[in-house]
Structure formats: structure tokens, C-alpha cells
Write a structure and sequence with these properties.
Number of strands of chain B: 4
CATH topology of chain B: ABC transporter involved in vitamin B12 uptake, BtuC
Order of helices and strands of chain B: HHHHHHEHEEHHHHEHHH
Low-confidence stretches of chain B: none
Largest sheet of chain B: 2 strands, antiparallel
Strand content of chain A: under 5%
Helix content of chain B: over 70%
Number of helices of chain A: 15
Structural class of chain A: mainly alpha
Oligomer: heterodimer
Mean pLDDT of chain B: 86
Structural class of chain B: mainly alpha
Number of domains of chain B: 1
């Protein structure tokens, strides 16, 4: 548990501090997104065409934003969890639970705003449960959240009684498919959540404290931080984000599918966070970069779809992306780069 | 008695208690037919769980086993039905491919110093994607060898059938118990799980052991895929979806410590049987829905994790 504080992550080069806008465009994630979008444009020349119709924007680019929003929202919560050196495998199951809760309540005649609040409440509760397992019972995060990942889909099916509950409630459908200021609602929700979360962690000491817990939990505790309270907040927030995603996905298909809602999205969310440059070893994190990571994943998905490959091909491409990132992040390659003159400043 | 045997004993007692409880509700469950079906229906899960036991004992995790099972079924089907190879040749090729796949993952985990779950996650995507690129549709396997294997079994007293598939699982468990507790490789796995640094200082070949562990896990996942294709006579890229979670649950319920370094292969066998019991009971009952399986397995998983915490909190800290 206790490690020497002077020798933390000695093999990793320090991540850059926030830099001016000009430097933003040289970040690898931004270049990667640009490259993916360029390939999409070459495959499908109308890719960047955005039209205004019926009071909202339409086009492939908007579609990428819209389809990427659920994973982006998951990634916001996941970034904080991974920054504390944890991981949350249960977010996909929590999505199913939240969607099932909202849909079942609405079809039983409960007013939609109450159903939405109840769904968000179940998300908070699920996250809180994970947090209790990680802090009070001191179970490793992968395993603690695995419990809910296994049991969660069963719970969601218990709520829907095994059926796909469909609904026609205007508020729930609006969350999934509506538009505001010409942009789809999921995009607005994801953007607002990203900005709020970033402001909260960066304008207060919260972000710093989360990083401190992630780098060395014991040291953070000895320094006077209540690491357990922080971890509880972080896991509860991840559950909350998952509940929002669950509402969006349910509203999009106008129904709650306990088996398939959010299936494998936990893996996409982790991938988005890793692409965003947050280390799985905890510490430095960036919420906007994780959202950008989610957009890169979705741009690839869309690109594969419009180029006519089968959607399963996605998995091969995703694994190739993970492998490239792992090789680039590994100590082996940073040693190699250091040998090259001028590569490391 | 030896305190380290306690979780194994607890698992065994809980299994016996649960089985008696099930029999008191459904007397028909007390028969060798049901027991024989236990072994046949859970054979692929059991074989994959043995590999997972070694991985978890070494302190890692392997999320790719379900995908490797799916990939193997498709590969076997393609080799037999499209290339007209004999099933035994197809099995050999599939097992070699799976083993090489695991070795590469193990090498990546060791040399790139990445957490095992992210490497095996990439492996999972690759294997599932590779399987659906090979064939997005289910391929039925129709070969005299398959029908012959499926028809052969040993008749147990009481009318139960011990099928070839069930025998393969029992054999795998027997060999794995010897491998874990009686060989140098087994000791190295335990040492690695206790502490990688200490293991390296003691002279355990960390690189070779890590690569062997993941190669073994994928080999067994491949074998589970072969068994799965024998069991269903089909190859499909979405076969065995989520089996990695069932396998992890079986290992944990079997009393293996998730931080590594402690546990028994025999415990995993009971963990698999306990999951099979839950499933069979729900089928027997008829009024309970299938989603109760997931909830009960989740609750069991939670109980055993809690049990581990209690046992190991009481024990003196050695870390």
C-alpha cells in the first residue's frame, strides 16, 4: 500500500499543463479526431454538410455528436473514477436499471418528471452502493462494480418483468430525441454536464483532491483528506451519469430494453477515458479530453457504417486503437522516444 | 484446522446446503441424471473458469475468455465445414491459435506494463471482431465425428449420463489441480500473485510465467470453445457472450482471493456447480424467471467477497 512519495510513476513523462488554444490543436486526441473525420469525408463527401430543417440541424456531423453523447456522459463520470485509480464496470447495467425505472413508472401512470427523478435517484443509489463497497468494505473497484454489473441487468429485468417496456410519454421521448437551440437534446445534456463537471473540479480544489487520492490513497489520507468521502462522491456521480445516459437511450428507442440497453458501453466509456489521456494508474485527468475520446470512437463507428463494412468490424478497429494507445503510453516506448534527440523536451 | 482452507470449506458447505434445500423443494433434483447434466451443461464454463483461476491467482484478470470461446467455435466450424478438415485437425489448429493469442496478450501485459484488464479487453474486442469477420452468421456443424462424440457417454447408476464433454471438464480440473499445487509453474503463479516484486527477487521467471498464465487461460478458453461447439454443433461469433463474468464469479465463489496469491482450483469447481445449481433449480421450479439467475449469482458473488474480507481482515497482515 505505502509507496515512496518521491518516486511516483517514474517512467511516465509529465503531462502538459493547460496551454493556450494554439497548443490545443497539436494534442494527439485532436489530431486523431481530425484524421478520423478526414477519412470519413473522403469516404463520404457529404459528411460535413449540415442542413437546417424543421427548426434543427441535420447532418452526419450532428449525428456523430448525437450518437456519441451517451458514451460521452458515461465517460465524464468514468474519468473521475479512473482518476481515483478505480474503474466502474457497472455503468452499462445502471443505464438499463435507470431506463427500466423511468419506463415502468411512466407506463404505470406516474407523472414523467417524477419518473425522471426516480431514475436519476436509482442511478445515485447504484453509484452509492459501489462507493460503499469500495470504501467501507475496501474491495478493489473492478470486483466491487462487477457485482452490480452481473446483478444489475437481472434487477432491470425484474423492474420491467422481462418485457421491453415501451412508452409514448412526451418528456421521456424529448430527452432522447428532442432538440434545443437546433441541437439534439443528448448533445445539449452532454455539453452542459461536461462544462459543469469541468468547472466544479477545476474551479474548486475537488479535482486536485481526486488526483491526490488517485496517485496515493494512503498518502492522501495521511495528508488529512477524507479519501473515503471523496471516493463515495466520485462513484455516486458515475452512477448519476449512467442514469442520465440510460434515460437518453430509453427515450431514443421509446422503450426500456433491460437486456441490451447500455450493453458493452462500460467498455466504450473506459476506452474513451483512456483515449483522452487519463492514466489507468490514477492521477491526472481531463474531462473534456475524455468527451473528445468518446467523439473519436463515435466518428469511427459512423465512418465504418457509412463505408459499408459490417458493424462488427468496429470491434477489430477498436482493439487496434487500444493496442496503439497502449504501446504509445507504455514505459517501453517512452524509453525509446527518450533516446531520440529532441523528442523529449 | 488450517485457516486457509476455510473459504473452500464454506463454499462446499454452502453448496451442499443449497443442494439439500433445492432437493427439499424439488425431490426430482436428487438423481444422477441431474448431476450428469450439471457436468455437461456447465462444461465449457468450468474449463474456462480453470484458466481464469490461474489468471486471478497471479493477480490479473482475463476479460477475453468469452470472446475466445466464440472465436474458437467459429474457427472450428469454418475449418470443418468450409475447408473440409477432420474435426480433430480443426481442434488442434484452433487450440494453437488460441494459445498463441493468449501468449501475445501475456507478453503485452508484461512488457508494456499495462493492467491486464485493458489488454484482455482489447483481446476481447479483437476476438469477437475477428470471429464476426470470419463469419457473421451462425454456421451449423454437420460431421459424423460430431454425432459420434455427442452420442457417446458412460451410463451412471441411476440413469445419469456422463458425456464426453463432462469427462473433458473433469479431466481438465484434475490436471489443473496437479498443475497448481504440485509443479514449479503452480508455485510461481502463487508467488506472482502474492507480490510480483518479491517473486522477481526470489528468482521467479516473471516474464515466462506471465506469458504462460495467459497462454494457458486462452488455451483453456479455446478448449472450452471446442467443447461448446461439440455441445451446440454450431459456430457463432456471439456464442458465450458474457461468459468471462460467469467464470470470474465462479472463481470468486470458489474462494480464490481476487488480489491473487491465494485460492484453490477445486474451489472453482464448486463455484461452477453452485451456478449450475441455481440455473437448474430455476428451470425445475418453472415459475421463477431466468433473470433471477443473474440476481442470485450477483448476491452470491457479493456474499463471498464479503466473506473473504472478514476472513482476511481477521488474519494478520502480511503485505
Amino acid at each position: 500500500m505505502t509507496r515512496p512519495t518521491v518516486d511516483l510513476r517514474p517512467t511516465q513523462p509529465p503531462l502538459p499543463r493547460p496551454r493556450p488554444l494554439a497548443h490545443f490543436f497539436t494534442r494527439p486526441q485532436v489530431i486523431a479526431l481530425a484524421a478520423v473525420l478526414l477519412v470519413n469525408w473522403l469516404l463520404f463527401p457529404g459528411f460535413f454538410t449540415v442542413t437546417w430543417q424543421d427548426g434543427r440541424f441535420f447532418g452526419s456531423l450532428i449525428d456523430v455528436l448525437n450518437r456519441g453523447a451517451p458514451v460521452a456522459i458515461l465517460a465524464i463520470g468514468m474519468t473521475m473514477v479512473i482518476a481515483t485509480k478505480g474503474v466502474d464496470l457497472s455503468v452499462g447495467a445502471v443505464m438499463a436499471i435507470s431506463g427500466a425505472t423511468a419506463a415502468t413508472l411512466v407506463t404505470n401512470g406516474i407523472p414523467a418528471p417524477v419518473a425522471v427523478l426516480a431514475a436519476l435517484g436509482t442511478g445515485l443509489l447504484c453509484g452509492f452502493w459501489n462507493g460503499i463497497l469500495v470504501t467501507v468494505l475496501e474491495i478493489q473497484p473492478i470486483i466491487a462494480t462487477l457485482v452490480l454489473m452481473v446483478a444489475g441487468r437481472g434487477l432491470a429485468q425484474l423492474i420491467t418483468e422481462g418485457y421491453i417496456v415501451t412508452f409514448s410519454d412526451p418528456l421521456l421521448i424529448f430527452i432522447g430525441t428532442g432538440s434545443f437551440l437546433g441541437l439534439p437534446m443528448p448533445v445539449i445534456i452532454a455539453a452542459v454536464l461536461m462544462i459543469l463537471a469541468t468547472l466544479i473540479v477545476r474551479r474548486t480544489a475537488l479535482g486536485l483532491l481526486i488526483e491526490a487520492v488517485g496517485v496515493n490513497r494512503s498518502a492522501a489520507r495521511f495528508a488529512g483528506l477524507s479519501a473515503n468521502a471523496l471516493l463515495l462522491i466520485v462513484y455516486t456521480f458515475a452512477g448519476f451519469c449512467a442514469a442520465i445516459s440510460g434515460l437518453i437511450v430509453a427515450g431514443d428507442i421509446r422503450g426500456a430494453d433491460a437486456n441490451n440497453a447500455g450493453l458493452w458501453l462500460e467498455l466504450d466509456a473506459i476506452l474513451a477515458v483512456v483515449i483522452g489521456g487519463t492514466s489507468l494508474m490514477g492521477g491526472r485527468f481531463s474531462i473534456p479530453m475524455a468527451v473528445l475520446g468518446a467523439m473519436i470512437i463515435q466518428a469511427m463507428n459512423t465512418g465504418i457504417l457509412i463505408s459499408g463494412f459490417s458493424p462488427e468490424f468496429n470491434l477489430v478497429v477498436k482493439s487496434a486503437v487500444i493496442i496503439v494507445i497502449l504501446v504509445l503510453q507504455s514505459p517501453l516506448s517512452s524509453r525509446l522516444f527518450r533516446r531520440l534527440p529532441g523528442a523529449q523536451k | 484446522m488450517n485457516r486457509s482452507l476455510r473459504p473452500l470449506l464454506a463454499t462446499t458447505l454452502i453448496f451442499l446446503f443449497a443442494y439439500m434445500l433445492a432437493v427439499s423443494q424439488q425431490p426430482a433434483m436428487l438423481s444422477t441424471r441431474v448431476l450428469g447434466n450439471f457436468l455437461t451443461d456447465n462444461a465449457f464454463l468450468g474449463i474456462a473458469a480453470v484458466g481464469m483461476t490461474f489468471v486471478i491467482l497471479s493477480g490479473g484478470i482475463d476479460l477475453s475468455v468469452g470472446a475466445v470461446i466464440g472465436f474458437t467455435t467459429v474457427l472450428v466450424a469454418v475449418l470443418i465445414m468450409w475447408l473440409q478438415l477432420h474435426p480433430l485437425v480443426a481442434f488442434a489448429i484452433a487450440l494453437i491459435v488460441a494459445t498463441a493469442f493468449g501468449a501475445v496478450m501475456g507478453a503485452a501485459i508484461h512488457y508494456l506494463k499495462v493492467p491486464s484488464f485493458i489488454v484482455t479487453l482489447a483481446g476481447m474486442f479483437l476476438a469477437r471482431g475477428g470471429a464476426s469477420v470470419l463469419s457473421p452468421d451462425s454456421i451449423g456443424i454437420n460431421h459424423p465425428f460430431f454425432s459420434a462424440v455427442q452420442k457417446s457417454y458412460i451410463l451412471l447408476p441411476g440413469g445419469g449420463r456422463l458425456t464426453v464433454v463432462g469427462m473433458i471438464m473433469l479431466a481438465v480440473f484434475a490436471v489443473a489441480i496437479l498443475l497448481a499445487h504440485r509443479t514449479r509453474f503452480g508455485s510461481n503463479v502463487y508467488a506472482l500473485g502474492g507480490s510480483e516484486t518479491s517473486a522477481a527477487l526470489m528468482g521467479v521467471p516473471v516474464a515466462r510465467t506471465t506469458i504462460s498464465i495467459y497462454a494457458l487461460s486462452s488455451f483453456l478458453a479455446g478448449l472450452a470453445g471446442v467443447v461448446f461447439s461439440l455441445y451446440t454443433s454450431a459456430g457463432y461469433s456471439l456464442n458465450a457472450l458474457g461468459v468471462e463474468l460467469d467464470a470470474i464469479a465462479a472463481v470468486v465463489i470458489g474462494g480464490t482471493l481476487l488480489t491473487g496469491g491465494y485460492g484453490f482450483v477445486a474451489g472453482t469447481f464448486i463455484g461452477v456447480m453452485l451456478q449450475g445449481l441455481v440455473q437448474t433449480y430455476i428451470v425445475f421450479d418453472g415459475t421463477l424467471s431466468s433473470w433471477w439467475t443473474k440476481i442470485v449469482v450477483g448476491v452470491l458473488l457479493f456474499m463471498f467477497i464479503l466473506l473473504q474480507r472478514l476472513v482476511f481482515r481477521a488474519a494478520p497482515r502480511r503485505t
